[in-house]
Amino acid sequence: MIKKIRIFLKRCFLICLLMGLVGYYAYFLTTDSRFEKMGRIHNRELSEVSGIVKSHINPNVIWLHNDSGHSSRIYAFSTKGDYLRTYELEGIQLIDFEDITRIDYQDESYLLLCDLGGNTKIGAKSPAQMILIKEPNITDCQSQTVEFLSDYTRIDLNFDHIDFKPNIEAAAYNSKAESVYLFTKTLFTNAINSSVYSVDLSKILRQMTSKEEESHQTTAGENIEDSSQLAEGVLAEKERSMMSDNYDETLSNEQLQDIYKLKANWVTDINFKALQDLKWVDFRHLILRIFDFPSAVTAADFSDDGRQLLIRTYGNAFYYKIDLNDESSEIDTNNKMVQIDKAQIDHVLTYEKPYYLRTPFEAIGESIAFDQTGQGFYLTSEGYFQNIYHVNIQNSVMD
Length: 399
Fold this sequence. Notes:
Layout: H1 2-28, E1 35-40, E2 49-54, E3 61-66, E4 73-78, E5 83-89, E6 97-105, E7 108-115, H2 121-125, E8 129-134, E9 146-149, E10 153-159, E11 168-174, E12 179-184, E13 194-200, H3 202-232, H4 235-244, H5 253-256, E14 258-270, H6 272-275, H7 286-289, E15 297-302, E16 308-313, E17 317-321, H8 336-351, E18 355-357, E19 369-370, E20 376-379, E21 387-392, H9 393-396, E22 397-398
Parallel strand pairs: 5-9, 10-14
Antiparallel strand pairs: 1-21, 2-3, 3-4, 4-5, 6-7, 7-8, 8-10, 11-12, 12-13, 13-14, 15-16, 16-17, 17-18, 18-22, 19-20, 20-21
């Protein structure tokens, strides 16, 4: 009799467990009606999406990339998840590629690829570097597979206050301050979830703009000179000069690319764990709460006007509104307005409390990006065939 009761209880337990798992899984996949599911990423190469940013020059296009352990590639997708193009950096390897951010400067659009992670032993020992490239125009791409990019600028970082490479998983460029803000991911602490650093890119951007202007002027001058040479009958010499340009391909990457060394200045430390209220954290994250995962910073993005900032954690997201000057920093020859705006951003991050945003549940969400209107944002998660969501900020703010 006792044996039969034990068997019965075991069966009841297994049935309840099975029903609980089925119910949990079903709820796991449900999406709040406030969140718009744009589509799904149907590409097996993207199994660890760690960064997302909206394109400036390609309509309805987002840029995605994988985490560590993958090739140095970025992928163009439609906002609905349709694969478009793949681009790979030539001659350089990104070890722990954690985030991507866009830079719009004087009518040019750039992408900043941030190889700053330190999750793995290899990542922790690798150089802290960022790669600056012109944003590709996918309509100019001739390849249906992989387009290689050989023209880029490398930025090596040294960090203020510390003599080691921190684990940075979030990067966001602010157009008003002309700086990229970096956020560390810290676990197993009750005090600090993220240290914030800023890197001033104004000099590099101005130098790049000056070089491009000089290049255009040189090209125009060469065209005039070519015409006169043709008139004087010296075309053969010009052809030999053009042929010699091909030998640049034999030079090392160090010789071909611009390399800058910049300092990452400490701004503040933020305790996102203290900013979270337990009732706001999706209960599906509560198991991970033991390891501080819901408050670990994994992504960030500024709006195009620099007045809004999103910071994502595994739990949900935080939203800052920043009061900046209306004047354009691009015409500020003395750089005063840039410094004022930078000081205001630093003040907001240090002293002001952000809004808390409810977002779709994603087990390993490491991506967030403003849309072009600044009224909503896109996000997705690591894993195969993940959804791309669009969230309206106003609808997701928690009081």
